[in-house]
């Protein structure tokens, strides 16, 4: 039987090759993911091991104890500074360095602080414990010297020797000479926010962080040193040797690699699912075409089991070949991607591709198992062929109509009703949030199963609809194509479902992204009908950053601007809870700030009153007319609730009148200011006016609403492009499926094509016929996918949040359909060429 | 189109002077392969088929009768010699011209797989006309359908028709476009004798009553006896011919050929 199977693979190698390609792409994607993430991880490990090797022993806060209450000592993520002195005094210790890390906002060339969050200030020594690589210049030694993170320097255009300005913890400006550029390693904080390195003493002074995040120690035998340091440090801190430190750092950074891997593997699974459909279909068709061959085997004495085993063996051979090719493809893909990423971002060290045994094992196993599993049903069908079938004359292929059997009907109704029910439940009646989204996702999966069960019955009507236009345009070839697409409904259904998966997910993401964008824009317009917003950087500092008090007056004095609204807020205590009390310029209520008011009225917000957010009101059992007591600088003050408001708003949970706020908490700068362009003023001029007013204050940043919208739009577009690219693979595999089905049909219809050629169909018309058939299949698949994707995109959007706005990205949906049609044309090229080339006379005599 | 054809009285194929030929083959040779592996399927065949006549081509297996028909019908190219269909010399025509020529001037009835399985009987009958973009002559269509007795089967697909009915649909298709020649390749090869007789009778009456020209390849002496004239082929050459054949005469002739 082995020989027969291998001969089978050889004889059908062209047809099986397309199947192998489908497996190859799926396995390639999975293997590529492994190679990519393993290589990245290897680079990270190496880098950290290198960095940690400079240290004999390191003291860090205990792992997992980051959220220790501040009362217990220095912040839970820090090591007390006095421990530094104690360790320095230990016998044998030759060098000690307390690693300082805190906020030290760098002022960029534009005179404003760099980034949306402050850059990080770090301590850099020039001694043997210098952990960072100085890539240019030298480490700082004097209090007025500093190094910059390489990328931060590049983005700001600072070169070695330049004078940079940095704000200290109190906001005072300091000048430093840039002595060098540093690579702060794969420090994720520096990666995000940028970094400035100072001498240790200067770092403490600038960041205001007395306690280091880590103490590095040098001093002879590591184990002995570790015990000695541990004795001083006590149980609250981890004392690690250099090797353990390297592992721990790499672990922390490795979490990102794992997320990337998981994310990519999800798309790999989608691709394999599509591959499975393609493989199943190919084997089912091959078995049908080789009915005679199978029956002959049975005639000469092959048992059912042997026939079954033979088909499975054939699939295993194909699976192995495809998987091996897939592994090779994966390595190439990963290498290409790494080269691409490496060109843009030198942060990830990648000297050598890593192909781990796990990657090989997973790739081969998944490829072979998926192939063999997909061939199971066709193999079973092969055992059902009676030996006598070998003697019967060949049946006309196709022509049978598909009847929806009872099992399928029951499954369709069951899954369909459940799926739609869950989707409606999640999107309309449940509380918005994660649970509702999961319910919608489950509904989507069920409905998709229902569609799979129903698809063969949908092929006729959908094929007729999709083929109406081509049939009209191309006449006889078009009409024949429609009939051909509909003649084997199961085959067409499986072929198109493979495409439905990719296109469906693509349109789902397109709808969710477009809706997310529309939601953001709608919320922005509703809650901030402003042209400009002035704010400081987002800081993790204890005290809320404030805008200079004079800023608002400066803005109000400009004739280009109008509607200047100051927003203030303050932490305060209500009952036992720490809450946020806020206020806004009185004129803004009802105009700029108009949250949906559930009860009472914001107009009643007079001295001694408060407006409360509905979530808080519900939680605290507060209603209009109630009185609550709030802790202020002047003691407990009773406040009468005059309004309950809802919606997503920038207002604090408790809102008091502006004059009251100042009375309760003293004079305080706003945390943000909203400004509008005076009607009739050129927005460019208004922007310049805002910038001029803000010029003296380096921490004040102005953002225009259009810029924010553009930022969101481009963020959504990027997300969509990444998802689209990853799902593109599933679509490509589905196209192989179409090409495969079509070429098998061409083989099957050799006689028929010859007859048509004899009766006067030209080669071009024959090619056209097959192209139209492919396009019809592609459109059926894409249409089903788009309908499902849009429906569940809507359901997902509705289930996310109350404020979600549904948007249909018409352009993208139409584009997706057009692309699917075009891809169908592409898939038909080879089968059509083959069909047109076949000799009429030969086909007539041998068919 | 009808005007170009004059009905020929029954039985005129034999002694009477032949009508102008519909198809003429001159020194046609066909070689497959080359060198030692070359197979000479036809070795200089010259034959002409009269308009309004029913001619059978006979011969043992491998005699080249199917090849001759393929060359005459423009399905296959000749290695040397000339084939003229009506006034058109088809040797040397490109694939596209040949296809259009077949579509408009030639009808086919094959042994099996005659019909497109996805089309109904009516759609199959009208296929060549539709390919040519011509409007079917509804009266003529009705007449043909009536003669072949398919009136109540028009909306059926081939799978729902018996073998004899399928062949009658194929005959109707060959007639409805009023081609200059109808080529039939073992049209009764897969039929039982009663259905076969029906189809043959129908082919003969389409020659006698509608003035069609038919060239039929067969190895069945009974089928050949429906023709006006039988041409015998052996080893790629025409070896003899018989006018007004009877089954017995055909059988004798075949025996004489050693087939």
Keywords:
heterodimer, A: about 850 residues, alpha+beta, B: about 260 residues, alpha/beta, six-stranded mixed beta sheet, four-stranded antiparallel beta sheet, about 25% strand, cell membrane (chain A), membrane (chain A), transmembrane helix (chain A)
The SS-based structural class of chain A is alpha+beta
The count of strands of chain A amounts to: 22
The residue-averaged pLDDT of chain A reads: 82
Q: Output mean pLDDT of chain B.
A: 84
CATH topology of one domain in chain B: Rossmann fold
Ends distance of chain B: 41 Å
What is the CATH first-level class name of one domain in chain B? Alpha Beta
What form of chain B results from the Cα inertia axes?
globular
Strand order of the largest sheet of chain B: 6-7-8-3-9-10
Number of helices of chain B: 8
- Assembly type: heterodimer
Low-confidence stretches of chain A: 65-74, 395-400
Question: Rg of chain B to the nearest angstrom?
Answer: 18 Å
Structural class of chain B comes to: alpha/beta
The main β sheet of chain A shows up as: 8 strands, mixed
What gross morphology of chain A would you assign? globular
Q: Quick one: how many beta strands of chain B? A: 10
Largest interface (CB within 8 Å) is between:
A-B, 29 and 31 residues
Order of helices and strands of chain B: EEEHEEHEHHHEHEHEEH
Helix tally of chain A equals 24
Which CATH architecture of one domain in chain B is right? 3-Layer(aba) Sandwich
């Amino acid at each position: 039987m082995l020989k027969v199977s291998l001969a089978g693979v050889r004889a059908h190698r062209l047809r099986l090759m397309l199947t192998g390609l489908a497996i190859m792409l799926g396995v390639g994607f999975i293997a590529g993911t492994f190679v990519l993430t393993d290589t990245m991880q290897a680079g990270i490990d190496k880098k950290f091991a290198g960095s940690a090797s400079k240290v004999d022993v390191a003291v860090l806060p205990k792992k997992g104890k980051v959220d220790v209450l501040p009362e217990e000592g220095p912040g839970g993520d820090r090591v007390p500074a006095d421990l530094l002195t104690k360790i320095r005094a230990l016998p044998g210790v030759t060098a000690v360095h307390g690693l300082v890390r805190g906020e030290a906002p760098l002022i960029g060339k534009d005179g404003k602080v760099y980034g949306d969050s402050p850059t990080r200030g770090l301590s850099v020594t020039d001694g043997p414990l210098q952990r960072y690589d100085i890539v240019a210049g030298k480490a700082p030694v004097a209090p007025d010297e500093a190094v910059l993170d390489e990328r931060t320097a590049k983005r700001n255009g600072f070169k070695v020797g330049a004078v940079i300005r940095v704000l200290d913890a109190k906001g005072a400006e300091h000048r430093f000479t840039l002595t060098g550029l540093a690579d702060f390693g794969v420090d994720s904080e520096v990666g995000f926010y940028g970094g400035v390195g100072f001498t240790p003493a200067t770092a403490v002074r600038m960041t205001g962080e007395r306690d280091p995040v880590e103490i590095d120690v040098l001093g002879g035998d590591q184990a002995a040193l570790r015990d000695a340091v541990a004795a001083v440090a006590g149980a609250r801190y981890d004392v690690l040797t250099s090797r353990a430190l390297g592992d721990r750092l790499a672990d922390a950074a490795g979490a990102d690699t794992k997320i990337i891997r998981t994310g990519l593997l999800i798309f790999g699974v989608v691709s394999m699912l599509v591959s499975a459909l393609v493989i199943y279909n190919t084997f089912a068709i091959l078995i049908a075409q080789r009915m005679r061959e199978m029956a002959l085997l049975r005639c000469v004495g092959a048992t059912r089991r042997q026939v079954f085993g033979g088909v499975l063996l054939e699939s295993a051979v194909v699976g192995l070949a495809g998987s091996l090719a897939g592994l090779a493809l994966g390595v190439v893909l990963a290498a290409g991607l790494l080269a691409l990423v490496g060109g843009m971002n030198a942060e990830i060290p990648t000297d050598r591709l890593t192909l781990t045994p796990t990657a090989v094992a997973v790739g081969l196993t998944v490829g072979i198992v998926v192939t063999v599993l997909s061939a199971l049903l066709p193999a079973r069908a092969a055992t059902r062929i009676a030996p006598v079938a070998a003697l019967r004359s060949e049946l006309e292929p196709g022509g049978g109509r598909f009847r929806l059997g009872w099992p399928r009907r029951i499954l369709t109704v069951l899954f369909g009703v459940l799926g739609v029910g869950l989707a409606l439940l999640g999107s309309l009646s449940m509380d918005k949030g994660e649970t509702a989204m999961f319910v919608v996702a489950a509904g989507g999966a069920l409905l998709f199963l229902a569609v799979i069960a129903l698809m063969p019955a949908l092929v006729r009507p959908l094929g007729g609809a999709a083929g109406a236009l081509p049939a009209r345009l191309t006449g006889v070839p078009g009409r024949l194509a429609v009939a051909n697409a509909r003649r084997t409904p199961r085959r067409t259904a499986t072929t198109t479902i493979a495409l439905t998966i990719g296109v469906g997910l693509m349109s789902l993401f397109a709808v969710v992204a477009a809706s997310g964008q529309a939601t953001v824009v709608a919320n922005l317009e509703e809650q901030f009908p402003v042209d400009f917003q002035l704010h400081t950087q987002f800081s993790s500092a204890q005290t809320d950053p404030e805008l200079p008090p004079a800023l608002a007056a400066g803005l109000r004095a400009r004739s280009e601007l109008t509607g200047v609204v100051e927003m203030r807020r303050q932490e305060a205590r209500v009952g036992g809870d720490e809450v946020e009390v806020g206020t806004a310029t009185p004129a803004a209520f009802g105009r700029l700030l108009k949250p949906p008011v559930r009860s009472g009225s914001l107009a009643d917000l007079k001295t001694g009153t408060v407006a409360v957010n509905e979530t808080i009101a519900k939680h605290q059992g507060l209603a209009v007319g109630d009185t609550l007591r709030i802790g202020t600088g002047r003691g407990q003050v009773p406040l009468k609730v005059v309004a309950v408001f809802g919606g997503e708003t920038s207002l604090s949970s408790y809102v008091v009148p502006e004059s009251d706020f100042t009375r309760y908490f003293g004079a305080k700068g706003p945390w943000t200011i909203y400004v509008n362009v005076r009607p009739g003023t050129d927005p460019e001029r208004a922007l310049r006016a805002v910038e001029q007013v803000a010029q003296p204050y380096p921490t004040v940043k102005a953002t225009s609403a259009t810029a924010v919208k553009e930022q969101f739009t481009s963020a959504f577009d990027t997300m969509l492009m990444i998802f689209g690219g990853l799902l593109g693979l599933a679509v490509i595999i589905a196209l192989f499926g179409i090409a495969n089905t079509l070429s098998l049909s061409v083989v099957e219809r050799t006689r028929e094509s010859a007859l048509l050629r004899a009766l006067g169909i030209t080669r071009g018309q024959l090619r056209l016929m097959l192209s139209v058939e492919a396009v019809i299949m592609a459109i059926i698949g894409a249409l089903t996918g788009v309908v499902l994707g849009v429906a569940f995109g809507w359901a997902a959007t509705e289930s996310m949040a109350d404020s979600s706005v549904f948007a249909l990205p018409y352009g993208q949906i139409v584009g997706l359909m057009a692309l699917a049609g075009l891809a169908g044309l592409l898939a038909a090229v080879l089968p059509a060429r083959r069909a047109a080339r076949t000799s009429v006379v030969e086909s007539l005599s041998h068919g | 189109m009808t005007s170009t054809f004059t009905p020929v009285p029954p039985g005129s194929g034999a002694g009477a002077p032949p009508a102008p030929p519909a198809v003429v083959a001159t020194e046609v040779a066909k070689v497959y392969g080359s060198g030692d592996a070359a197979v000479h399927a036809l070795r200089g065949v010259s034959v002409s088929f009269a308009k309004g006549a029913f001619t059978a081509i006979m011969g043992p297996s491998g005699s080249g009768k199917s090849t001759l028909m393929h060359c005459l019908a423009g399905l296959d190219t000749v290695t040397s010699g000339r084939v003229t269909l009506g006034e058109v010399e088809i040797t040397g025509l490109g694939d596209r011209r040949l296809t259009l020529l077949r579509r408009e001037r030639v009808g086919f009835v094959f042994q099996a797989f005659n019909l497109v399985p996805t089309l109904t009987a009516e759609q199959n009958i009208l296929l060549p006309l539709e390919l040519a973009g011509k409007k079917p002559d509804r009266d003529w269509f009705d007449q043909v359908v009536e003669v072949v007795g398919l009136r109540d089967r028009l909306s059926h697909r081939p799978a729902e028709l018996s073998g004899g009915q399928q062949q009658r649909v194929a005959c109707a298709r060959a007639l409805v476009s009023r081609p200059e020649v109808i080529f039939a390749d073992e049209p009764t090869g897969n039929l039982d004798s009663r259905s076969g007789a029906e189809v043959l009778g129908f082919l003969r009456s389409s020659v006698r009553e509608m003035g069609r020209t038919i060239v039929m390849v067969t190895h069945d002496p009974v089928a050949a006896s429906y023709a006006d004239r039988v041409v015998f082929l052996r080893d790629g050459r025409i070896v003899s011919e018989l006018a007004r054949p009877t089954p017995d005469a055909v059988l004798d002739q075949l025996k004489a050929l050693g087939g």
